[in-house]
Amino acid sequence: METEDEISLEYKRGNATLRSSTHTLTYSKTRKVAAPPQVCKVFPIALKRREILEYDIHTYNFTLAITRILISLNPDLVGSFPTIETSHRTTELSVFPKLEYFYVPPYSLRVKRPAERQIDHASESLTSGISNDDSFMSLFDSFVLQVVLPYMKRRLHTLGMIQDLHTPMTFYYQRPPTLRIQPGPSTQSVMLHRDGDYGHQEGELNFWFPLTDRTLTQTELWVESQPDEGDYTPVEVNIGQVSVFHGTSCRHYVPPNKTRYTRVSLDFRVGVQDYFDPHWKMRGTKDDHFRRTIEY
């Protein structure tokens, strides 16, 4: 049992973030010699450049949707809003707590405990809460269909990768998206990496967006502009904006959240027809993200 003094130190051990949609890489001697994805075309370098996509926060109020979900989960496992009372829960946004005040129990970020891995149970609860919430999933599907896919086709058309905007093509999007909760003050960071190391393919793009005020959390996602450039710059996007980048090849990391505000974000990936193999899986991976196939 942790003492009050130990808990007051907050987040000095364990993972930097609590996340849903766990994606795990296990050791495999055959990984390096495994067959690569079977694709028709090479993903162009121009599509790997970072862009910002904007959306209407009133139509797609993900902050409110995630707040509702977090309130419904086990506070001792996932976390809680210290000021909210169960008897006063309501659907009115004006009385909802701010995501920046969400508190994650420090032990739920610990990788090892004497009897169990608490972080695994917390992540599973978070994943279940998101994927089983019909209202949120409907909102997310609408966002992909009405905002993300039209953007993708416009960008592909501009780059000359498709002839017109009207011919249907196939996309493969991660569903549900990944929710990441990064509390503070913390000494823990998300290490430098590229998603290709964890089984993600060249033929997909990352969509990452914050649900909390970056002026409060003061912690950014840092991404290089092109693969192996090493010119890391912060992804300075606000609520209502989405950072689009090629996380498979472009390295990225997140420094420690040194504030007392919690940083919350959503992200997912979209694979593109002819550039993405929906049947491929890196040897040694488990708990892979589910993909929905859609023609648009």
Describe the protein's architecture and organization:
Strands 1, 3, 4, 5, 7, 10, 12 and 14 form an 8-stranded antiparallel beta sheet that branches. A 4-stranded antiparallel beta sheet has the order 6-11-8-9, with no helix packed on it. It has a two-stranded antiparallel ribbon with strand order 2-13. It has helices spanning 4-8, 62-72, 118-131, 134-158, 214-217, and strands at residues 18-19, 24-25, 51-54, 170-174, 178-182, 190-193, 204-210, 222-223, 233-234, 241-245, 252-254, 263-272, 285-286, 291-295. With 296 residues, the protein is of the alpha+beta class. It has a single domain, classed as Jelly Rolls.
What's the topology here?
Blueprint: H1 4-8, E1 18-19, E2 24-25, E3 51-54, H2 62-72, H3 118-131, H4 134-158, E4 170-174, E5 178-182, E6 190-193, E7 204-210, H5 214-217, E8 222-223, E9 233-234, E10 241-245, E11 252-254, E12 263-272, E13 285-286, E14 291-295
Antiparallel strand pairs: 1-5, 2-13, 3-10, 4-12, 4-14, 5-12, 6-11, 7-10, 7-12, 8-9, 8-11
Integer tally of domains: 1
Q: Any idea what the radius of gyration is?
A: 19 Å
> How many strand segments?
14
CATH class: Mainly Beta
The run of helices and strands is HEEEHHHEEEEHEEEEEEE
Taking the sheet with the most strands, its summary is: 8 strands, antiparallel
Q: How much helix is in the residues?
A: 10-25%
Could you tell me how far the N terminus lies from the C terminus, measured between alpha carbons in angstroms?
Answer: 53 Å
Please state the second-level CATH architecture: Sandwich
Structural class: alpha+beta
Mean pLDDT: 87
Helix count from the secondary structure assignment: 5
CATH topology: Jelly Rolls
Fraction of residues in β-strands = 15-25%
Question: How would you describe the oligomerization state of the chains in this entry?
Answer: single chain
General form: globular
Low-confidence stretches: 1-7, 86-94
